[in-house]
Amino acid sequence: AKADGKRRWAMFDPDRNATEVARLRLSAQLPAALERGEFYVDYQPLVGMRRNDVVGVEALVRWAHPELGRLGPDRFIGLAEETGLIVPLGRWVLRQACLQGRRWARELGADAPFVSVNLAVRQSRDPNLVSDVAAILDETGLDPAKLQLELTESAIMGTADEPLESLRELSRMGVRIAIDDFGTGYSNLAYLRHLPVHELKIAGSFVEGLREADREDPVDARIVRTLVDLAHALGLTVTAEGVETRAQARRIAETGCETAQGYLFARPGPPEAVHELIIGGVPG
Ligand code: C2E
Ligand code: CA
Ligand code: CA
């Protein structure tokens, strides 16, 4: 197997080889990084369109790498998925988010936002998912209604029935389930109807085309409207992601989206920054 690996190695061009080495190095560093506490979580508000308030907060993981500086999730989540480290890493993020959610609940009572946590495909298939979530909720004392889990279409629309059953259990516990980046994967609409899902998050790539009426991408605008109508027909709420301009926020509100997320309102940041927005209100 070693000789085989060497032969394949020889076929790589030098550039490709260097990025591959960097990838492997990063990948190998993940477990120790988790042990040493090099990961941290930023939070980004989900803003209610009606009252411009913070209804939820998405937890987004980052890596404070000792040599490379701050790395975004796009640099390491894929690697963690490949190696399986995503399961303990994802559990760590979930626990941090629940601890933070509990802090907000203590400070703000019933008005506290829910925390929304991304679940990788591998986590959604993990047989311990439900018991892990239950244990973390129990330990942190967070009300299950103040937790939302975000899964992509591919995580939800698995071939096996298992992910479905665990989602159903989580939903029964009172946890909110959201479909992330909706419209970018493939969803079986018939299936969607029977899923224990509460919210659709429309991918920023569709929101991008929304502008003032005359300068708008008509196809993107039509897609957003269709997705919102579909969600509402299914009894789900909708969050629009990647809202960067006032025009987009206005268009989003017009289509009946309940919630929006994006740089217009706030960039992902430390929990203190979100706290200020919760108390002081959201600009825009
Ligand atoms: P996502 O779940 O779609 O998260 C939203 C991404 O869009 C975040 O990127 C956020 O910073 C970015 N974003 C927010 N508002 C705007 C905007 O107005 N314009 C633009 N252009 N971008 C905006 P980030 O933090 O780099 O995360 C990238 C992806 O990494 C996430 O996409 C998610 O799929 C994944 N991810 C992040 N944290 C976790 C985690 O704890 N577990 C797992 N499994 N995946 C995670
Ligand atoms: Ca997400
Ligand atoms: Ca998303």
TrEMBL record:
Residues of the EAL domain: 23-282
Name of the protein in question: EAL domain-containing protein
Whole-protein residues included: 439 to 722 of 722
